[in-house]
Amino acid sequence: MTIQTGYAIASITALKALTSSQRADSYARLVKSVAWYIFDASSAATADDDLVLLPDDNPSTGRWIKIGGSGGGGSSNINFTGSTICTSSCSSGAGKAFHFDSPQSGFIEIVVDSALAPYIYTVPDAIQVSLWTQEPNTAMYGRQFVAELPKTGGSVFIATDDYRPWISVQARNPGSNHDGVCCTFVGNTVTLLAF
Predict the structure, then answer these.
(1) Would 101 disulfide with which of 29, 82, 153, 176, CB 3.0-4.6 Å?
(2) Is 178 exposed, middle or buried (0-12, 13-18, 19+ CB in 10 A)?
(3) SS3 label, residue 144
(4) What are the pLDDT tens digits along the chain (195 aa)?
(5) Under 8 Å CB-to-CB from 109, ≥6 apart: which residues?
(6) Is the backbone of residue 28 left (phi > 0), alpha (psi -120 to 50) or beta?
(7) What is the pTM (predicted TM-score) of this model?
């Protein structure tokens, strides 16, 4: 399963107005000048017209969940419980991916270590966050793009489940290619350390 996207939406009001025939589970839409939202057909989260949007037809389940931009805090944060994986080329305690023990949803904070920052190419999509349906691999099988961030990092909403229990972070290296990054995963923070 891959995340499908549609044309950009002008506003949150327009996104909420999409009918059930215009949205499907894992369908993503960019709301111009706001953020990316993904439709979670099983979500019954309380709408707040920012992080969680309730469609205008008021379904009992099905919410638009913000997957980019800033925000989050308190109980809406992910707690990295599971294990750091893909550790062979990383320093002790770091890895290029994380495997969650159980499904979670909420915000993670992407922080770039000052020693790595000069080596990340300066572009709007310098950092990419992905969920995986299988252990992360260089062939990119099972990768599902979640969000992109500038090289300064920021907050991202993710929703793991039994189908997508792995997460990884890539950054643009000096050659301008996205490359796996050695990270630590502590609390709700992913700290990018080195290529």
Answers:
(1) 82
(2) middle
(3) strand
(4) 444 556 678 889 999 999 999 888 878 887 876 777 888 888 888 888 888 899 999 999 999 988 754 333 334 678 899 999 999 999 999 999 999 998 888 889 999 999 999 999 999 889 999 999 999 999 999 998 888 899 999 888 888 888 889 999 999 998 878 999 999 999 999 999 999
(5) 72, 77, 153, 154, 155, 188, 189, 190
(6) beta
(7) 0.64
